[in-house]
Design brief:
Blueprint: E1 2-3, E2 10-11, E3 15-17, H1 27-39, E4 44-46, H2 62-74, E5 81-86, E6 88-89, E7 92-93, H3 97-111, E8 116-121, H4 130-142, E9 146-152, H5 156-169, E10 176-178, H6 187-199, E11 203-204, H7 222-225, H8 231-235, H9 240-256, H10 260-269, E12 278-279, H11 287-292, H12 300-311
Helix pairs in contact: 2-3, 3-4, 9-10, 9-12
Amino acid sequence: MVAIGNSNLDIFPLALGGNTFGWTSDETSSFEILDAFTAGGGNFIDTADSYSAFADGNSGGESETIIGKWTAARGNRDDVVIATKVSQHPEFRGLAPANVKAAAEASLKRLQSDHIDVYYAHYDDENTPLVETLAAFDELVKDGKVRYVAISNYSPDRIREWLSLAEQNGFSAPVALQPHYNLVTRRKYETELASLAADNNLGVFPYFSLAAGFLTGKYRTREDLEGQARQKLASGYFTDEGLNVVDALSEIADAHDAEISSVALAWLLAQPTVTAPIASASKISQLPALLAAPALALSTDEVARLTEVSDRI
């Protein structure tokens, strides 16, 4: 178990992404995945109020609704740590104070919970003064509806501004950062965000940690992606250099008798600032490889080899 930044939350070092719930996983399959995840030692679930408004027929909030039904059915709300996000739900866009409050109430209702463990600002809202957003988050913490606040998809300058405003005004400081980071997408995080996280003891939870499935090794040609639910997301990673990374992952996986996805997640866990990668599963058969990652110890040479081959992207 690892701590999330300066919080008192201890989690298994792999977060289960809830973006598939109500999208590529129906309620029954989602319950099975959640059951298997917690049975395997997992306790941290990451979602957003907008999941999965992007899927045909959905309006947003489907993931939270499924998670809420599951915790109610299992009676295990206090045994899991739930993170969700605000700013992208079709009915609650942006980070104006009234919107943050209303969106949080809607999330709590869907989650069937009286609190959110970690509440992220999903995307920056430059039309709202940052100090007003922070005050709204702080009020939720003071009211006991949110335990800790966190940041996702903010620029380094805006993160620095957030941290400064929190200190100046005595607002609840962020405990976590959620960046886009994986073996084939490294520069943006490693250039400035990594040092910001380290300097401020922010827990780091990379999303797209498996590059929308590209780093699982199941998509070796563009034809493999045709008709897949993740075709649009994963196609952007398809380059010769990216495929070289997958080849290196495959060789190291064979040496460990492990899955390619386990090795890709283990590389992230070997990075000094990463607390836990976020990985999602559409079916229960995908979970063992994810849960195996924290126990997979890559050698220094293996980590260096993967770093070197991905440097070429």
